[in-house]
Amino acid sequence: MKIGIIIGTIREGRVGASVGKWVYDFAANRNDEGVTYELVDLKDYSLPLLGVAPTEQQGAAIGAWSAKMASFDGYVFVTGEYNRSIPGAFKNALDFLKPELANKPVGYVGYGGLGGTFAIAALRVSNAQQQLAGVRTMVNFSLMADFENFTVFKPQPYHAMNMNGMLDELLVWAKAFKTIR
């Protein structure tokens, strides 16, 4: 089984890369039997705005993004919270996908002033339309409690319980959904 950990922000000075790396390391260190984790950074895909005619290079990026996302049996979406929602680039990237995501589970890791709760809520609604099944447990990192000077990621140890719970749920659902794809 292959699980993609997707960093959903591309802005300069972002903290998403450090959160995504932590999630990846945490998951990989669990040594789940028969499971591989892969860290995917949205910043590596130069996607155009949906609806704008893509250049040849952007068309290739869309194809690569689609193929990468289709290769997974489940996902962990790592999202910042901007203006009480998900980053625009992440929403745009997800809008390029539908069959690639259908009948797969997703777990959520958010970060922000309120732990990314509003961003995760927005993702849950949008992802349901893409036939993604969101697991119940989520992980929420606070800019005030889990980041030094709001920029250096230093998660509190108590997040391990939610992270393990979210991954446990995700793997059960990924195994079940694999039987219907």
Automatic annotation (TrEMBL):
Alphabetically sorted, this entry's keywords are: Oxidoreductase
The record's annotation in Pfam families points to: FMN_red (PF03358)
Q: What is its EC number?
A: 1.7.1.6
InterPro entries xrefs: Flavoprotein-like_sf, FMN_Rdtase-like_dom, NAD(P)H-dep_reductase
GO MF term set = azobenzene reductase (NADP+) activity; FMN binding
The reply on keyword Oxidoreductase is yes
Broadest EC class? oxidoreductase
Give residue ranges for domain NADPH-dependent FMN reductase-like.
1-125
Gene Ontology CC annotations of this record: cytosol
**PANTHER family, alphabetized:** CHROMATE REDUCTASE, NAD(P)H-DEPENDENT FMN REDUCTASE LOT6
Its protein name is NADPH azoreductase
